[in-house]
């Protein structure tokens, strides 16, 4: 699995960046990756969650990695939508694992994201 891609997302988001509610989504995801038994399963879950959140389609690892493959060339608006999806994933993790995080982001229903469009 491509852990480097997740590290790019975390770096782009900012590991110490806090939400308005005071928690750090990228740090939560990064730290969880360090402790999970199956890194491949966790990475699949992260990437497919983010992909589904951004495109509103049922995802799999192949389509998610294809979608994120050119992340370095994404326009700022698309990167910003990914940052919101990362917050949604971290919030989901906090709810499932009962980690205290009070952010109200969950999966947001919106139009699919074209990472190369400035809209």
Rounded Rg: 13 Å
Mean pLDDT: 83
How much helical structure, as a percent, in the residues? Answer: 55-70%
SSE run = HHHHH
The total domain count is 1
Query: Are there runs of 5+ residues with pLDDT below 50, and where?
Result: 99-111
Distance between the ends = 31 Å
Give the biggest beta sheet.
Answer: none
How many DSSP-defined strands?
A: 0
Report the total helices. Answer: 5
Structural class label: mainly alpha
The amount of beta strand, in percent, is under 5%
Assign an overall shape. globular
Give a short overview.
The chain is 58% helix and 0% strand. It is mainly alpha-helical. The protein has one domain (3-97).
Describe the structure.
With 119 residues, this protein is mostly helical. It has one domain (3-97). Helix content is 58%, strand content 0%. The protein is built from 5 helices and no strands. The chain has helices spanning 3-13, 25-35, 39-55, 61-68, 76-97. Helix 3 (39-55) packs across helix 5 (76-97).
């Amino acid at each position: 699995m491509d852990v480097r891609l997740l590290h790019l997302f975390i770096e782009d988001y900012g590991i110490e960046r806090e939400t308005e509610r005071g928690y750090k989504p990228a740090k939560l995801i990064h730290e969880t990756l360090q402790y999970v038994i199956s890194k491949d399963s966790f990475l699949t879950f992260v990437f497919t969650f983010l992909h589904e959140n951004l495109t509103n389609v049922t995802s799999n690892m192949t389509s998610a990695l294809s979608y994120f493959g050119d992340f370095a060339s994404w326009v700022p608006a698309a990167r910003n939508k990914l940052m919101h999806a990362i917050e949604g994933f971290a919030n989901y993790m906090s709810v499932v694992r009962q980690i205290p995080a009070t952010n109200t982001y969950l999966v947001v229903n919106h139009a699919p994201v074209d990472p190369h469009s400035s809209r």
